[in-house]
Please model this.
Amino acid sequence: MIEVLNVTKVFNPGRPNEMTALEDVSFSVGENELVILKGPSGSGKSTLLSLIAALQKPTSGEVVVEGTRVSKLPDDFAALFRREKIGFIFQKFNLIPTLSVFDNIVTPLIPEKLDESELMAKAERVMEEFSIAHKRYEPAKNLSGGEQQRTAIARALVNDPPIILADEPTANLDAKLSAAFLEYVRRIKEEGKTIVIATHDPLFFGLDIADREIELRDGKIVKSEE
Amino acid sequence: MKNLFAFALSSLTRRGSKNFFIFTIFTLMIFILAAIFTITHALKSEMFMTLDALPDITVQRVVAGKQTDIEASRSETIAGMFGVADAVPRVWGYYYFAKAGVNFSIVGVEAFGTSYKKSLDVVAETYADRLMEENTMIVGPGVAETLKRHFFSDYFYFVKPDGDLKKVTIAGVFKPSTVLESNDIIVMEIGLVRDIFGMDDTMATDIVVRVANPEEIPTIARKISEIYPDTRVVTKEDLKISYQNVFDYKSGIFLALFIIAIFTFFIIIYDKASGLSSEEKREIGILKALGWKIGDILQVKFFEAIVISFGGYLLAVTLALGYVFGLDAPLMRSLFMGYSVLKPPFELPFVLDVGTLALIFFATVPVYIAATLIPSWKAATLEADEVIR
Ligand SMILES: Nc1ncnc2c1ncn2[C@@H]1O[C@H](COP(=O)(O)OP(=O)(O)OP(=O)(O)O)[C@@H](O)[C@H]1O
Ligand SMILES: [Mg+2]
Model:
């Protein structure tokens, strides 16, 4: 499903502030697997996620997703790839604060030029699933932490993508909401999605539903356990 | 919200107060520019229309540095000069109406004959029965208005230099369409004007000369001043230059306004072009991560910029045209025309300066759009990963 092959990412190569964020990283994620990327701050977790999502290109090596070499995709095709294949859940959720819940959730659909009924149906489905439909007109900035979390998950799933990438999804949540997030992950996995979560939250360590834990340190994989 | 345009609109309203501020400044700036250029253009064409009607050469007598009456008979000598089409003595002057604190211009014409009456009918509402009487005058609408306010609806008593009163009947009023030239004017028979001003029958105020070939104007003007060393000879060209000077001086005030407007514009452009707020960058990053193409993002930014700049332009030009031609440019016009009690009520001629309006368009709208798009494009291509760090 996802194959990361000898990926190296160097920022600002050849300049004084040169930074090797990832070095010769290889691993793969099978369909419907849940992989936890762990490691201290600055170890390269986010960088790895953005390479999988084709938001950046590796300095060397390749990323192949469902047979497509996404690390070679031109910008517009990378965007199309993300739209169809990837649902992103960000640290702090990154909702657009002044947009309503509904508008945030349909944002990934807007460039697709769907007709209104189709767009409504897709939004309705995820709003129901993550119990946020009652707040649909509320601007995101007025939401509680849990509501923001559910809106962000609904937005990631609105396009029904096969892959979900989550970057520090519980970094700003209390224990109860973190536990709730875990439940959503369980549900999403049951729906058949492939999931990669970058985190240093111990809550995700040794998880029964996790297929693998990959530990990064200074851009290198130091441990990978099933 | 279901398409890029709707997203653009919502994103404009989301940053409502900032966008409203930019829209207002942008509109105001284009309004000032468009109004200045439109007024200037209208006045210029008006001015040159007026100037074209001026005599080729005006001859005045100057004694001790002051203009004074000139012998009417000199016109015959001048008319006899080679190249002169005709030379006519004019009798005119300003009459100060103390009660209203205004000056009327009294202009003398050859007797109101039958043929003259006909041409008068074209420009004035006349009372035919009175016109043939003695001691009558045709007045401009401003004069008629002023006199009426002081209870002189049918006639007026002029005070002569020796203190005697002269009763003159109003036999007609100029039509409003000729208001610019005739608003403060009183036209009466030449002898009557001499009587009111206490002038000798052989004297005139000045002599106007028409020249057959415009290229000979300077030569003839020089010859006249050689024959009559006590005269000041003013050519149409001289007048044009002095008008132009006044005009240019007034334009200086407008230049100042103009510079302020341009300055504001560049502050907006600078602010726009110097980059996006971190919030805006973050939003672009989110959109990219959610699968928006760079083109989708730029399309939204383009719509936003179009709504503000083109919307502002259309609104500003509409307001400017309404202000200049509908309302007759209050404030700005008095800056330009100087203040005169009787002058105001003329309409600026409607001349649309399409070239300049297009110039304003191309100097503002595309600049604004570019200043919006370029930083967004940069953010969308280079910095989109920031959002997931
Ligand atoms: N665009 C960039 N330009 C320069 N350096 C970068 C860039 N993106 C990441 N880095 C650097 O690469 C290294 C890895 O960053 P990354 O964000 O992947 O770490 P992380 O494991 O996600 O850390 P955290 O747990 O704090 O989120 C860091 O040292 C970071 O400063
Ligand atoms: Mg990170």
Notes: The radius of gyration of chain A is 17 Å. The interface with chain B takes residues 46, 49-50, 53, 55-56, 75-76, 79-80, 82-84, 86, 88, 90-91, 94, 96, 98-99, 102-103, 106-108, 110-111, 113-114, 116, 119, 155, 159, 167 of chain A (CB under 8 Å).
